[in-house]
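Hi R.,

As promised, here are both runs. First protein below:
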Amino acid sequence: MSLRHRVAVMMLVLMAVAIAALDLVTSSEVHSFLFGRLDQQISASQDEIVGYIDHVYDAEVRRGDNSAQTNPTAWLDGLEAKPQVSHPHLPRFRRLSRALSRLPIFRTTSLPKSSSR
């Protein structure tokens, strides 16, 4: 094989290795960026939902309804059925709260008392 052919083959091999490395780095960066955006969206939704549920919980405790304290899972399940408390993220939160309530670390007997704002 002549020197010209060896150089051409070597350049093709180096280009293939460089393209593969660039593909790996690019896909890794895109993956990291997209998961970062997903984390931001989940955090924003979670803050909104927690604030909303906190507000409803405080209102019901002020009214004297203690079902939220005695049976928090049933209270959370009943939130969607109440007409005065509709929220676009509530069905997603209910599914998440049911899934989390099955984990031993998230099992609680009552919701924490909220602090005055």
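And here is the second one, sequence first, then its structure tokens:
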Amino acid sequence: MLEHQDEQSLDSLFTRAESHLDRILNDAEKRTDELILELIQTFESCQRKIQHESLFSKNEEIDDVPTSSIRYLSLPFYLAKAHGQVTNLYQRKSHLLVSKQL
């Protein structure tokens, strides 16, 4: 999955990650650490694409952000939510700390 993320558009990657997170949150059987870590990597790929494309500027007001890009402002929330789903006891603390910083 990761090797194809660079080729995908930000929109399709983000949409897929959103639906993947929704499935993980709503279906305990799909809530494996492997799938959650894959999801985190997908959201991080979205983050890199946003930075690479300079989608947002620190001096922009919300009115300056194109309507089509507003959905990406929720990325830190989604990423924190995904980090909070990790259940491996040896990794959980570090993921919760990352989640808290987002």
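A quick note on the second one: Helices lie at 2-5, 10-26, 33-52, 75-83, 89-101. Let me know what you think.

Best,
J.
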